[in-house]
Each structure stands twice: as structure tokens, then as C-alpha cells.
Amino acid sequence: KVAIKGIERELICPACKELFTHPLILPCQHNVCHKCVKEILFAFEDSFADGGSESSNQSSPRIRISASSMDRIDRINRSGIKRNSLTPRSTLFPCPGCQRDIDLGERGINGLFRNFTLETIVERYRQAARAAIAIMCDFCKPPPQESTKSCMDCSASYCNECFKVHHPWGTVKAQHEYVGPTTNFRPKILMCPEHEMERVNMYCEICRRPVCHLCKLGGGHANHRVTTMSTAYKTLKEKLSKDIEYLISKESQVKAHITQLDLLLKETECNSERAKQEASQSFEKLYHVLEEKKSAALRAIETSKNIRLEKLQTQVEEYQGLLENNGLVGYAQEVLKETDPSCFVQTAKQLHVRIQKATESLKSFRPAAETTFEDFVVDTAKQEDILGDLSFHSSGLEIPEINEEQSRMYNQALISWECPGKTDTADIYVLEYHKLNREEESVAWQKSEVCGKSKVLSDLDVDSSYAFRVRGYKGSICSPWSREVILRTPPAPVFSFLFDDKCGYNNEHLQLNPRRTSVESWAGFPLLLGSERLQVGCYTTLDYIIGDTGIAKGKHFWAFRVEAYSYLVKVGVVPSNKIQKLFHNTHDVISPRYEQDSGHDSGSEDAFFDLSQPCTLVTLGMKKFFIPATPAAPKDPASRILPLPSCLGICLDCDRGRVGFYDAGRMKCLYECEVDCSGITYPAFALMGGAAVHLEEAVIAKYRDI
After folding, report:
1. What residue stretches are annotated with the Fibronectin type-III domain (predicted)?
2. Is the pLDDT of residue 645 over 50?
């Protein structure tokens, strides 16, 4: 048998860290004191009302909501989820045992069962802990006698004499159930918390809780698999007994594991002390190097100071000699008193040279030494960066890799990364990035700490290249930096628009999605019926669609994706004054050389045909990008055909009157030409046969659970 004093840790509430008092069983099968459940629930609801602020979590000094629960509050508040009066209210409870948010249902705390078995065990533990403290009789006249038994029906304790008086032989009370002295009285019949007048007589195998027949007939357990209480009692008791017997039979193995763990504890202590000593020695070496460098720098500054002070002091003395009755001037004044010409000339010649030098120095005064010590400024920027990265490198942390396919550079930058082993071993990641600039000698990395595996950056300049790298941290241990990845931002600010479903939109051939961000055409019966009526030399028309917003000035960029199965798609821009001509143009695909009225097959008419088009478009289709045939384009047709990028972009510069077509994945210009920007210009698309175009969605900072 296990000693009652050896199970204390199983009898401690995970919230208040004290022995259970009226414990309740949560749906996750953990137990929490009734009082603790109420306090946590009130604190949790207050945190929802205050937006998860720290100040709202101070209602109880012994209860504290877990960090994961606070994160959930922030997440729900950010998502804007609100309940109305028609929505069934569901109570969330942050379980302190498993650190998860548990749904208590509409009844909340009233739908929880009281764990009477655990309550009895706690009472037995308390009695064992306070064996010297006796339970007194509740009915004795003062002074009360020590009780000898407790009646579970009366919920009271009695001495022998009082028990006989209150439970006389031959009466109903004589049939009451009595036990040894106790203060823990529980009901003899377990009632359903949802149907208070019904006793529980079944066990729900899905929810793993006792239920009554009303719960099964029309309550929340109507469609659940249930069994009788006796069957559940027998089954669970057999399983628990077998598991206990197995654990008892493995007692020697458990003791061996405990011995091994004790050795590991000691070994951990020794290894940690050794690691501390090695770390201290490493830092001591750095201290010595820094002290030597510091002493050398201070000595150099002191030596330079003394030399400069000496020069300046000499210059001061020289200028003091120029004062009247002082130094050189005083000496010259005495020489002037000489009346003998020969003696005067002999002395005055050298004196005159010195006076001239002093006069010249007055005309161009210059200090003998510099007062600034700019040459002695210690540049420690690189060393600070290196010391900032100083941490414990571990081979146990995988080096993350930036996923260039999932990363996007659009209105904002979305940088995504992953670990090669697909395991998230790091607690936090640090993403660093800097703008590539050839003029800057030193690189200043900008840093951002991320809890997940992606980060949205909004402070990047357009038409610029940036280098990115990432590393993982687990406590004070970090992984090496990932390989640097260079990505380029769009050449201009992103222009947002939707497909226009009114102006010229042909709903018989084209289909828009509800958000108007995708358009699709298909080669169905309308196209076949139209072709059946046409003969040789006819034209097959394109179905055009434009953006719902135009551009009047500035430089703008937008991106889109063309499905790989698309047969023919044209993309570009159209001026507002040519939109009507665009939708009523009947000659928009096949060259006039094939027209019956042409009378000849001259390829020179293609140039006239291109110039006659109302808009500037390039042709895509069959996974190819076709550079238009212009005088500047390569003459070889094969060299004008490029693979179709996964994402295309268009950059319209109204100020320069030019439009460029880009590989939006690499932000590389594939083709550029002049365009008329005198009025308002709209994005234009044309589709024929089976084809689809999807506008690129803007990058937004979404909350991610990764």
C-alpha cells in the first residue's frame, strides 16, 4: 500500500498550490478548487473586457492567467470576434493544469462535477497530517467530547452517547450510514448538474463524464455513445487496477530510473559549474584584451596631450615676449638706448630679424598645436556588432532557411523561413535585413524578433534590393545565421484595383469571382457557335476587361498571375479616351493580310496593325511571354519568346510616358515601351479560349499560429 503522506503532490491544486478544497472536474479531466475556478473565470472575463491588459489580471493575488491564455485574448481581440444576443454564450476557461483554454459550454461553472473521491482522499490526508487533532462531537454540552463516528446522512459527528440519543434503535435514523470521525461529508447520490433533480446513471464515453437519462434523451449527449454506470465503474476499475499492478511490479525499474536521474542531477550540477568557469575564462580573456587596448589608447592620448601642451606653452611665452617692457620688446627698447653706432649696428642686425619674424607671426596667427583629438576616437561599431552576436552556438539548433518561393515583395515584404528538419526547435527567431548600397562601407543590419516563421516588413524603400538572414534562439543558445537571401522591392508603389464588372464586361464569355480579383474565360459553346457562322478570312475577337480605377499621374506598379493552362491572354494599359474603341474593335487578333478585301499577303501590314491598336498590350499564352515585334526587338522570332513567369507585374510611369512589363518574382524588366499618358490610364486585360488571370493580393500583417 502507498503511504498517504507520499501522494501530497497529487492533492495540490495547480492554481493556488494548496490542498484541494471542493475540487471540480474540468472537461480536460484536470481538477481545480471551486474557489479557484471562480477567481480564474472572473479574471479571464475581465481580461477580455479590458483587451487582455496586464492591469486587469490583478483581481486575485494567488491566481495568474497563463501567457498562452493572454495570447489567446489578444488574438481574439485583434480578430474582432464579437458575440451578439442571438449567439449562444460559451464560457472559456484557461486550465492551469494543461495550459489550454477549455470550453465549459453554456452552463459554465454550473455544469462541472464535484470530485468527491478526490475530496475524500484529501480529507484522509489531512487527518493523517493532523492525527493529534481530534474531531469533537457536534451535540455534546460544553465541554464537548471527542467524536467516535460521523453520520453521512446527518452530516454531523457524534460521541457514543450522543449517537445513541440521536439515532435510537428501531427508528429510521438507526439505518443511517456512519463512518469514522470526519469533516468531509458528501451526498450519497450524485446528481446531474444540468438536470438538478435527476441522478446520474450513465457514462458518456465521448465526453468521459457521468450523465443522466435526460442528457441522453434530449440534451447535449443525445448522439453520444453511452454505457451504464455499473459497466463504466467495472471497466475503469479493472483498467486502473491493472495499471497500478503493472506500476507496482516495475518498482525495481522505477527505483533504478530514480537512481539514474539522481546521478544525472549531480552530473548536471558539475557540468554547469564547469561551463560557468569556461565562460568566465572566455570573458576574462576579452576583459584583458580590452584593458590592454584601453591602456594603450589612454597612453597615446596622454602623450599627445603633453606634446601639444608643451608647444602651446612655448608659443604663449613667445607672445608674452612681445608685450611692452617684456621679453623681446623690452630687450629691443634697451638696445635703442645705445648711442654708439658701431655697437648698435652690431646688436641691432640680429635683433631686427627676430622682430620681423614676430611681426609676421602677428599677421598670420596660427596655434602651434591642434586642440581636438579627432584622430584618437575609437571606432567600436563593428566590435559592438560582434559582441552583440556573442552567444552560445549549439549544433542542436537547426539553421533556418529563408523560403524564397513563399516570401513576397509587394506593397509590404513577407519573409518566410523554415527549418530543414521541419521541426521547430527554436523558441524565437531573429530576422535581420539591410538595404544594399554600394556607397556605404559599413553595413547596418536592422533587427526584428519573431515568434513564428514569417514576418511582414513595411519600412522598405521601393526599387531597392535588400539582404535578409535569420537565426533561431532557444534561451541563450542560438543557431548560426542562415544563408543571406537578396530580394528586390517593386519599382514603384503598389497600385490597388479590382476588375470592372460594368464597363464593357462580357458576362457570357467571362466570369468574375465575387471579390472581383480573378477573371476566367473558357472555350465553350458560345465560341463554337460563333465560329460556325464564320468563313475563311474571318476574325476571332478577344474578350476585354479593365480595372475599376484609373491612373492620372505618378509611377505605379501592380502584379497578377496567369494560369499555366491559359491559351491566349493580353495584358497592358488603355487610355480612357480609347476604351470605347477597345470594346467595339472588331480587328484585334488576326492580321489584315488574311482579310478577303486585302488582296495580297503582305507582312508589312503588321506594323500598321500594331500601331492601330487602341491600347498597349503584350501577349501571353501557352506558358510563354511574347515580346512585341518592334524595331528595337530582336529579329529572330525565337529570341522574342520567353518562359512565362509565375507572377507578372506592370509598372506605369505617367511622368515619363512609359510602361514596363516585369517578372514580379525577381522584379526584372522583360519589356518596356512608350505609352500615351495624356489622360487617365486604366489596367487592361484580354482573354480568349480557356484562360484565367488572378490579381496579386496585398501583403497584410495577419496573426499566424505557426
Report:
1. 399-492
2. yes
